[in-house]
Automatic annotation (TrEMBL):
The active site is at Y135 (proton donor/acceptor), K163 (schiff-base intermediate with substrate). It comes from Dokdonia sinensis. SMART domains: DHDPS. Pyruvate binds at V205. Keywords: Lyase. This is Dihydrodipicolinate synthase family protein.
Length: 303
C-alpha cells in the first residue's frame, strides 16, 4: 500500500569521476531527504538520468535505496521502456528488488496512439502487484494520457495515481471532478507545485527538493495545515530556484544546486556535460542568491 501524498523527490543518480554509481554520495542525499521528512523516493526518472542507466544500475539503485529507507517511506522506480515486453520485465525486476511501487511513462520513442498507450499500461499493470503512478507529461514526452484514457486505465486496481505534468493547472480540478479520490494526484511541475496542492493535488513529485529538502517539505506541510501565507512566503523565495527544473538542463542545474547545499556532486553521465560559461554563471547566481536569502523555516514537522 502506498499513501499517495506528500513530497516524493525524483532523486538524481550520483556518479563517480570514472562514470560508475557513486553510492556513498547517493546515501548522503537520501539521508538528507529522509531527515527533512519526505514521504517517498522516486528513482530513475528524468532527473535520475534514466535513459543513460544500465539495467543492472537501476537494480542496484533500487536495492540500495530499499536498504537506506528501511521501510520508512515507499520506494518507486520509473519505467521508461520502448517495448511492452521490456516494461513488464522492468516491473518484475522492480518487484523482485523490493520496490514499493512504479512510476510509469507511456512507450518511449514510438508515438503510440491512445488505444496503444492504454493497452501498454494495462499489460504492465496486469503483470505486477505493485501500485502504479502514471507519469503524464505531454510537454516533454509528446503523449498525453487523457481523462477518457484514465477512465479505461482505472479498471486496473493497481493504477492508483498520476504524476500530473500537463502544465494545465485546471487539470487538477478536472481529475478530481471525474475520479474523486480514485486517482490520486501528485503534481510533477515544480513551478506549479503550490498552486496544484491548493487546487487539491495530494502530493508533489519534486525536483529542487534534491538540493533543498527541508524547504520543499515545509511548503507542503504548511499548506496542508492551512498556513497558506507562510507556505506562500517560502514558495516565493523558492521560485527562481524551482525554475531551474523547467529547463532542458534540469539535471545539470539541480546537481549544481546539490553541490552548494552539500548533498551532491555535479558529475553527470555523457552525453550530458556539466554546465560551463555564461550558462553556468547564470545558474550559479540563482543558486547563490537563493542560499543567501534562505528563509528560516518554522517547525513544520509539528504543525
Amino acid at each position: 500500500m502506498i499513501q499517495w501524498k506528500g513530497v516524493m523527490p525524483a532523486v538524481t543518480t550520483k556518479f563517480t569521476d570514472n562514470d560508475e554509481l557513486d553510492l556513498d554520495m547517493f546515501a548522503v542525499n537520501i539521508k538528507a531527504q529522509l531527515d527533512a521528512g519526505v514521504h517517498g523516493i522516486v528513482l530513475g526518472g528524468t532527473l535520475g538520468e534514466a535513459s543513460t542507466l544500465e539495467d543492472h544500475e537501476k537494480r542496484t539503485l533500487t536495492t540500495e535505496t530499499v536498504k537506506l529507507v528501511n521501510g520508512k517511506v515507499p520506494v518507486l522506480i520509473n519505467i521508461a521502456e520502448q517495448t511492452t515486453k521490456g516494461a513488464i520485465a522492468a516491473a518484475q525486476k522492480a518487484q523482485d528488488d523490493g520496490a514499493t511501487g512504479l512510476m510509469m511513462l507511456p512507450p518511449m520513442r514510438y508515438k503510440a496512439g491512445d488505444h496503444e498507450v492504454v493497452t501498454y499500461f494495462k499489460a504492465v499493470a496486469n503483470s505486477t502487484d505493485l501500485p502504479i503512478m502514471v507519469y503524464n507529461n505531454p510537454v516533454d514526452y509528446k503523449i498525453e494520457v487523457t481523462l477518457d484514457m484514465f477512465d479505461d486505465l482505472l479498471k486496473c486496481d493497481n493504477i492508483q495515481a498520476v504524476k500530473e505534468s500537463t502544465r494545465d493547472i485546471s487539470n487538477v480540478t478536472r481529475i478530481k471532478n471525474n475520479f474523486g479520490d480514485r486517482l490520486k494526484i501528485m503534481t510533477g511541475v515544480d513551478t506549479l507545485a503550490l498552486e496544484s496542492l491548493l487546487m487539491g493535488a495530494d502530493g508533489w513529485v519534486a525536483g529542487l527538493v534534491c538540493a533543498f529538502p527541508a524547504e520543499t517539505v515545509a511548503i507542503y506541510e504548511l499548506q496542508k495545515a492551512g498556513k497558506i501565507k507562510e507556505a506562500l512566503e517560502i514558495y516565493r523565495w523558492f521560485l527562481p530556484l524551482l525554475e531551474l527544473d523547467i529547463n532542458p538542463k534540469l539535471v545539470q542545474n539541480i546537481k549544481l544546486a546539490e553541490v552548494h547545499t552539500g548533498i551532491g556532486t555535479e558529475t553527470v553521465r555523457a552525453p550530458r556535460l556539466p554546465l560551463s560559461g555564461a550558462e553556468r554563471e547564470h545558474v550559479l547566481s540563482v543558486i547563490k542568491t537563493g542560499i543567501k536569502n534562505r528563509p528560516t523555516l518554522p517547525d513544520y514537522k509539528n504543525l
